[in-house]
Design goal:
heterodimer, A: alpha+beta, Beta-galactosidase, Chain A, domain 5, 19 helices, 30 strands, about 30% helix, B: alpha+beta, Nonspecific Lipid-transfer Protein, Chain A, five-stranded mixed β-sheet, 5 strands
């Protein structure tokens, strides 16, 4: 998305417009009003006396509210404007727009003000893939509102548009005749409501305006204040870190989403604009990153994913009993089963990670009640690992889609077609057993055993899981280890051969704890060596591998989310200095993006580019990138719950200076953590990236 | 009476016999099923309480009402129609607690062909 677009959002309802506030979408560009994966407005253009307006300035007041200052004119030669137009827009079951005109002349004027409207009711998948619609369009006027409609058999969507001042309404928009005396102003509130019959969104009721209601914008502003007040305070020497921290918390608030089955509880959606919905993997990783700051996100993620945990075998949806969903969608293509997202389960990592999150959540919060409530779900997830995920009967989790038409080929986080390859570039067949899946499965068993013993009081299960975990670790360190390289193969192919490229997945293995202590030093040397570490972070794929490309999606770019878990893994094995190096690189990169880390950036060496090069079509803000600075704060401070206490063991880059993180919530109530930078990361980085 | 040509009655009577299923342990409440059949409404009440399931032909209050053509519901209980997709298509109407309907849908079977292909894969693995 180009950056002069203005985006405001509330859960999975969002508006993307140009800098003047206008929307004029073609099928393939992601501007418009979107709700529940459907575009409800593709045209929203303001004209005064038949002419478009120019933006003087645009303010993103809050993530749910924007203001556009406009003037008429050609935009070439600046002439003092004699009319100001202000549009203030906030998201609210659609959006509200306060339109104000101010006459600066000494004479009265009569203005012809018009809003042109249309909707293509495109499914987000159609916008992404440029597909054609199958239903029919119509318009009607009802209750002083213009209603845009779309129908395909029983499927219907409506957009309601109205104003609180008298307007001439026709099928293509609203027109106002505005008479202004000298220096007089005029204002109207425009309301647009997205109607979805299957979900609690009834437009007619929402169009009615009571005189003294609290607006959705006011509710959201109060909610954002409360959210910020409840999170730990960061005091530090670095202005950039302070700004990044604030940006991360606000973006995380913006990306919260209420699943219709669990109202009034928010979990993180994956990212704007394509992924404003529930994703198993993204919601879990983001909840893990944010645990020390906003533990409630994890609780909602666990509950919401539990409600939709797989309950039967369904090849079209790649569903199995106990499997945690990959992605949930509410649009037309999902409704007609042209896409399997109702829900789609094609992910091999979300299920073990579900157990990992449940355990990590309990360790931080002491909320044993949730662990008891979700005992059935956690057991079903653990059962899935053995009963449904071991596709080859060899004791390893692997994946192969059963929906060969619209299912996902790669069911791990590196989900692009060429992400898993041999050193020579050959792609392995399916099923694929990628290495990090074995790490997650190991960690799920170890943590499941702890929960079984501590909360579910089932020692038999605990012992079995521990035995299986130890056995998995032993086999994994034998079958995946590439001794001559000193790292783990990225996968085993269907014949059990090692897929031998060097990847960042090794960092996830450290995080999971599956790596033998004796092998950790060699793994770390690879991760922090010249082929992997760019100075900004660890590349997804090592330089020198056949498919390496510094701007290839999963084959050479640097992912902030990935790096935050690599840093956590380094801490887990005692490599504090290396973890600090990664934190320094990623946080320095964040400064170039005004505190908002993109999904991925180029894997060029830091010494070469001096600034991080953004990946072209990255989604922004994206939840797990937003969570990365939070997890890096945790790894820098060495925060670790031990029993009922929070242990602090700081290892900070010297460039970061002093950090105080105050009021960290957890089972200990609230405690503070302090640290001072002592790790000379510049020297360490020079040393490691200079190594041949 | 339950019979092969009345899959809905067979499914609901089986539910009543089962009496308990942990798949729905998160749900508490009564769901009223209004099955529409050529102008007639066949009404069932399914009460879920921490995994316990009660099925009745009469009841008073309901936390959610699911209104659907009987032929479509027949498809749902045989794993031929997906409840969520049907809801999004607007052929299945819900009033009240949507979460309760979502929970109930967990009791519905998957497509029979998917079950068969799973068993075949298992046989293959153990050969």
């Amino acid at each position: 998305m180009s950056d002069d677009l203005v985006k405001i959002l509330d859960g999975n309802i969002f508006v993307v417009s140009d800098a003047a506030g206008d929307i004029e979408a073609s099928l393939t560009d992601p501007t418009g009003l979107f709700a529940f994966d459907t575009r409800f407005l593709s045209k929203w253009v303001l004209t005064v006396d038949g002419a478009r307006l120019n933006a003087l300035s645009t303010d993103d007041l809050q993530y749910f509210e924007a203001r556009f200052f406009l003037v008429p004119g050609t935009g070439t030669v600046y002439v003092d404007a004699d009319l100001s137009v202000i549009r203030q827009r906030s998201v609210s079951h659609g959006f509200h727009e306060q339109l104000t005109l101010v006459n600066h002349r000494t004479e009265p004027v009569t203005l012809d003000v018009r809003i042109d409207t249309a909707s293509d009711f495109a499914d987000l998948f159609e916008v992404k893939d440029a597909l054609k619609k199958k239903g029919s369009y119509s318009q009607r006027i009802e209750d002083d509102s213009l209603v845009l409609e779309y129908h395909r058999q029983t499927f219907g969507r409506e957009t309601w548009i109205a104003a609180d001042k008298p307007a001439e309404i026709d099928s293509k928009g609203l027109r106002f005749e505005v008479e202004l005396r000298p220096h007089q102003s005029w204002s109207t509130e425009l309301r647009v409501v997205a109607g979805h019959p299957a979900l609690p969104m009834h437009p007619q009721g929402m169009m009615k305006k009571s005189p003294r209601r609290t607006t959705r914008a006011q509710v959201m502003a109060r909610d954002l204040d409360a959210w910020m007040a409840a999170t730990p305070k960061l005091e530090c020497d670095s202005d950039s870190l302070r700004a990044t921290y604030r940006r991360s918390l606000v973006d995380l608030a913006a990306l919260r989403f209420e699943a219709p089955v669990l109202p009034h509880h928010a979990l993180p959606a994956a990212g704007l604009p394509w992924f404003m919905t529930m994703f198993g993997r993204d919601s879990i990783f983001t909840s893990l990153q944010a645990l020390p700051f906003v533990p409630d996100l994890a609780a909602t993620t666990l509950r919401a994913l539990g409600v939709r945990q797989g309950s039967c075998l369904d090849d079209f949806r790649d569903e199995d009993p106990g499997r945690i969903l990959h992605e949930m969608r509410y649009g037309e293509l999902t409704a007609f089963e042209e896409r399997p997202h109702s829900a789609y389960y094609g992910t091999a990592d979300a299920t073990p990670l579900y157990v990992v999150l449940l355990d990590e959540y309990e360790r931080w919060t002491g909320d044993a009640r949730l662990v008891r409530d979700l005992e059935f779900e956690a057991r079903a997830a653990l059962n899935w690992i053995d009963q449904y995920a071991d596709l080859q009967g060899n004791g390893y989790v692997s994946y192969k889609r059963r929906n060969e038409k619209t299912g996902l080929e790669n069911q791990c986080w590196k989900d692009s077609w060429d992400s898993i390859s041999f050193r020579d570039g050959t792609l392995p067949g399916f099923p694929r057993a990628t290495c990090e899946l074995q790490g997650y499965a190991y960690d799920a068993k170890v943590r499941g055993a702890r929960l079984a013993r501590k909360v579910w009081r089932d020692d038999g299960l605990a012992e079995r899981l521990e035995r299986e975990a130890a056995e998995l670790k032993r086999r994994f360190n034998r079958d995946f280890w590439i001794a001559e390289g000193g790292y783990f193969a990225v996968a085993l192919d269907p014949d059990g051969r090692q897929v031998d490229s060097l990847t960042s997945n090794n960092g996830h293995l450290l995080w999971s704890g599956i790596v033998d202590k004796s092998k950790a030093k060699a793994v770390v040397a690879n991760l922090m060596g010249r082929r992997m570490f760019s100075g900004w972070g660890v590349r997804t794929l090592a330089m020198g591998e056949a498919r390496f490309n510094p701007i290839g999606y999963h084959v050479g770019t640097i992912w902030p989310f990935d790096n935050s878990f690599v840093a956590w893994g380094l801490r887990r094995y005692g490599f504090k200095q290396e973890a600090a190096q990664i934190a320094e690189g990623i946080l320095a990169a964040a400064e170039f993006f005004d505190g908002r880390l993109p999904e991925a950036f180029g894997g060029y060496a830091r010494s070469m580019t001096k600034y991080p090069v953004q990946y072209p079509t990255a989604c922004s803000p994206q939840a797990w990138s937003t969570g990365a600075p939070l997890l890096l704060l945790r790894t820098m401070l060495g925060l670790e719950p031990v029993g009922d206490n929070l242990v602090v063991d700081p290892a900070l880059p010297d460039s970061v200076g002093r950090i105080e993180l105050l009021d960290i919530p957890g089972r200990w109530g609230r405690v503070d953590a302090f640290g001072r930078g002592r790790v000379d990361t510049a020297r360490a980085t020079r040393r490691s990236t200079a190594r041949p | 009476m339950a019979s092969t040509n009345d899959p809905t009655a067979a499914f609901l009577e089986d539910l009543a016999t089962r009496g308990h299923d942990p798949l729905v342990h998160q749900a508490t409440g009564t769901l009223r099923l209004d099955l529409l059949d050529d102008g007639d409404v066949d009404r069932w009440y399914v009460t879920l309480a921490k995994g316990d399931i009660r099925v009745a032909r009469r009841g008073s209050r309901a936390d959610a009402v699911l209104r659907v053509e009987r032929s479509l519901f027949d498809g749902m209980v045989q794993g031929k129609v997906n409840a969520m997709a049907a809801l999004l298509r607007n052929v299945l109407h819900v009033e009240g607690n949507l979460g309760l309907v979502t929970m109930f849908s967990r009791l519905l079977p998957g497509p029979p062909a998917s079950q068969r292909s799973f068993l075949e894969r298992q046989k293959e693995l153990h050969r």
